Amino acid sequence: MSEPRYDVLIRGGNVIDGTGAAQRQADVAIAGGRIAAVGTVDGEAARVIDATGLAVAPGFIDVHSHDDVALLNNPTLDFKAAQGVTTVVCGNCGLGPAPANERLQQFFQRGVEGILGPVREFAWQSLGEFYEAVRATRPGVNAAFLAPHGSLRVAAMGWERRAPTTDEMATMKAQLAEGMAAGAIGLSTGLMYVPGTFAETDELIELARVAAGFGGLYVSHIRNEGDGLLDSVREAIRIGEESGAPVQISHHKAAARANWGLTQQSLPLIDEARARGVDVTIDAYPYTAASTSLAAIARGGRLVPVFQPADIMVASVKHQHQYEGKRLDEVAEMMDLPVEDATKRLLDEEENAVVAVMFIMDEGDVSRVLQHPTCMIGSDGIPSPTGKPHPRLYGTFPRVLGHYAREERLYSLEEAVRRMTSLPAATFRLTDRGELREGAWADVVIFDPERVAATATYEDPRQYPTGIPYVLVNGEFVVDGGEPIPAGAGQVLARGS
Ligand code: ZN
Ligand code: CU
Question: Which one of 70, 160, 280, 413 is most buried, counting C-beta atoms within 10 A?
């Protein structure tokens, strides 16, 4: 008997190729980790999947992930693979575990650990060494990295509320350049957080210029997503315009009731910038609740005044798990303290490692943002090992396909897939990803367009979606029969040209 010609043959599915083209029935053959043929395919394969009635699409690209450390702690990344995600973009919001020095390790202990998870051992220093460490764990999905400004700044100058000195700036630039040379796809900032919030626009332009020099992007969690939304969008655009870096505005939203509807003004700012030639794009997750570190919205226990305690849920903590799933007013009752004192005590006792879910967005803004022509999908999932993480960690992509495309008809299935595949691949410069065509890497998701749905809820968020029976990364199955399985075929992706 001769060797089979293909590793995998997916027969008779409806191919949605990622470009936005109408679906068509075709076979997909995979060999050596790449797509060998799309069309009517004859020939033997080691494994044949009957995809009749199912959609066959490129694997999804999660452009806004915080999986940097999760890739080391849980390389299968089951919560993403089960959604059909085959590539995660890490290093978002200015946060990441490198460049690692003493101060960066303190940064983790003082709260970043609550978002990214615990680092067992900082077995690296530079950004490039960290990417090597991820490669060595053989992750199940592909990972690409942004160089995180917050980490660069803490490593170079600690928690100083001032501009960097010439020396400190030189250090940040050198570390950033090292990461870009090692394949990072751009620079990320988290300007709502310490220490990003201490940086003036000029510092960011100067750093974004370094990223732009390598062909990288500027990706930003902007300074203020509430009443300062418009100025913050203007700042991001200016940074792109003056540095020459394409701009990606992360998890675009209008936060807090008083600001609902503001996306009717923020999106036109993006359109105007694009019209004069600035490359600005956005991403969003398909939920009306946000999630972040409680310390970031309640410094010293005092909640940012636009938020109500009843709108803030404690998602995960380090020690006192009885508070997980409770709103801040309930936590106060349990502690028999006023809300401010209870919040402060919780943050102190949990060493700031408290993640909150905040019910602060309007459905009108969410669907308006999702429909914007430049909007990709980014989960912003916070991979807490404990507690009740925001359901976006497990549900983002199936929720867009099932709820927003199929039920709400925000856009066609083909368009939904395009925004999860070829659009992010082109924007983030991921070569030979995001399209189902001969020669591309075989990142593939097979799903049932009638059944695909997120099942993760705020109460019970750790649930795999339904309707996604198979997912392949570089030709290897990472989800088989709806179950995530370890495969180790993911690659660390370097920025393409
Ligand atoms: Zn963010
Ligand atoms: Cu984020």
Answer: 70
Single residue among 411, 427, 443 that ends a domain in this structure: 427
CA distance 299 to 289: 20
**Whether 236 and 275 share a structural domain:** yes
| Max Cα–Cα distance, the chain, nearest Å | 76
Count of domains forming the chain = 3
Per-residue pLDDT reduced to its tens digit, 323-333: 999 999 999 99
Note whether 65 and 92 are within 8 A (CB): yes
Of all residues in the chain, the percent with pLDDT exceeding 70 is 100
- The answer to whether residues 86 and 221 belong to one domain is yes
Residue 497 within any structural domain of the chain: no
Same domain assignment for residues 80 and 221: yes
Q: What is the pTM of this model?
A: 0.98
Sheet holding 60-62, edge to edge: 60-62, 85-90, 142-148, 186-190, 217-221, 247-249, 280-284, 375-377
Q: How far is the CA of 193 from the centre of ligand 2 (A)?
A: 11
The helix (run of H) or strand (run of E) holding residue 6 is strand 6-15
Summarize pLDDT for 76-107 with one digit per residue, the tens: 999 999 999 999 999 999 999 999 999 999 99
Could you tell me the CATH number of the domain that includes residue 392?
Answer: 3.20.20.140
Query: What is the Å distance from ligand 1's center to 98 Cα?
Result: 18
Token pair of 210 as six digits = 């370094």
Q: Residue 446 belongs to what domain range?
A: 6-58+435-484
- Would you give the distance in Å from CA 239 to the centre of its chain? 21
Q: Are 350 and 420 in contact (CB under 8 A)?
A: no
pLDDT at 399: 98
Q: Which ligand is nearest to the CA of 225?
A: 1
**Cα 220 to ligand 1 centre (Å):** 8
Residues 107 and 161 in one domain: yes
Residue 322 lies in a domain: yes
Helix ranges (DSSP H) in 298-410: 328-335, 339-349, 363-371, 392-399
Average pLDDT over residues 61-86: 98
Sign of the dihedral through C-alpha 408, 413, 415, 421: positive
Q: In degrees, to the nearest 5, what angle opens at C-alpha 203 toward C-alphas 198 and 205? A: 130
